[in-house]
Write a structure and sequence with these properties.
By secondary structure, the chain is α/β, with parallel strands linked by helices. The chain has one domain: Rossmann fold (3-Layer(aba) Sandwich), CATH 3.40.50. The protein has nine helices and eight strands. It is globular and about 55 Å long. It binds S-adenosylmethionine. The site of S-adenosylmethionine has 19 residues, from loops.
Length: about 260
């Protein structure tokens, strides 16, 4: 099985990520940070969180890495547009980072570990580039405990299929609850874990994101040829998501799990 990044890089997916900020999605890590630190953000995507860290850590520096060149371009352009000069961005894979040992005071990674086939291997690499005493903060969703109402059989299928897709792509949609254990097994200490819910309001910000992933799965991952689903089900599942987004009582709360650890 190969590791694929399930959401892809449509403008819809990028805009969905770009709504995130330090305050809305990384508040758990803020108490561990102070100006002057050198931070690495792995899987930075469009880097709205990364650039928030850059403002908070100045005169320290922030480096964002992502394996996708288009994300690095968007991130670097946003830094220029916002006049942020202490952030730099590099195309790189979390499994083989282009940095010497003991380079960073802090590492952050948001919404990446659920897509990794080898999270323990990634953590070995993060350990290598962290300085002794440095900290790490991870945040990922956990698909085991979403709150969804009102449900329909087709909506349930849409969520189950989205989860299946991520698993077939080598990821683990339930990794949120494992983040603390992963840090412990990677020899990090002083581990603190937490969890919270994100309520999607308006609902269509999340439903359109999922509907488009389902629709493009046939083309991008040959989901129909592989027998993961069929064209009729793809239409029914994406329609169910869009109808749900218009329902006056439609409500979706997603679980996010967080873990912080320290390298001795
Ligand atoms: C869900 S996005 C999260 C973006 C950002 N951290 C956020 O939360 O807004 C995950 C990002 O990780 C990147 N990614 C996936 N696999 C990666 C890998 N092995 N190494 C580095 N980046 C990776 C993807 O290209 C994507 O931009």
């Amino acid at each position: 099985m190969s590791e694929n990044y399930t959401p892809g890089y449509s403008s819809n997916a990028i805009n969905f990520m770009a709504q995130r900020t330090v305050d809305s999605h990384a508040a758990f890590f803020q108490p561990y940070l102070h100006p002057g630190m050198k931070l690495l953000d792995c899987g930075c995507g469009p880097a709205t969180i990364t650039l928030g860290f850059a403002k908070a850590l100045a005169p320290g520096t922030v480096t964002g890495i992502d394996r996708e060149a288009s994300q690095i371009r968007i991130a670097a352009e946003s830094a220029v547009t916002q006049g942020i000069s202490n952030a730099n961005f590099l195309e790189a894979n979390i499994y083989a980072l282009p940095f010497p040992d003991n380079s960073f005071d802090a590492i952050f990674s948001h919404a990446l570990f659920e897509h990794l086939q080898q999270p323990a291997k990634a953590l070995q690499e993060l350990w290598r580039v962290l300085k002794p005493g440095a900290i790490i903060g991870l945040r990922s969703p956990d698909w085991g405990v979403f709150l969804i109402t009102p449900t329909t059989p087709e909506l349930d299928k849409a969520f189950a299929y989205s989860k299946w897709l991520q698993q077939q792509n080598g990821g683990n949609p339930d990794i949120g609850r494992e983040l603390g254990a992963l840090l412990r097994k990677a020899k990090f200490t002083n581990i603190k874990t937490s969890a919270s819910y994100q309520c999607y309001e308006p609902l269509n910000s999340a439903t359109e994101y999922l509907a488009q992933i389902i629709e493009t799965s046939a083309k991008i991952y040959q989901a129909v040829q592989k027998g993961w689903t069929d064209e009729q089900s793809i239409t029914a599942m994406s329609r169910a998501l869009r109808e749900w987004s218009q329902h006056p009582d439609g409500w979706f709360a997603q679980t996010w799990c967080e873990a912080v650890g320290q390298k001795n």
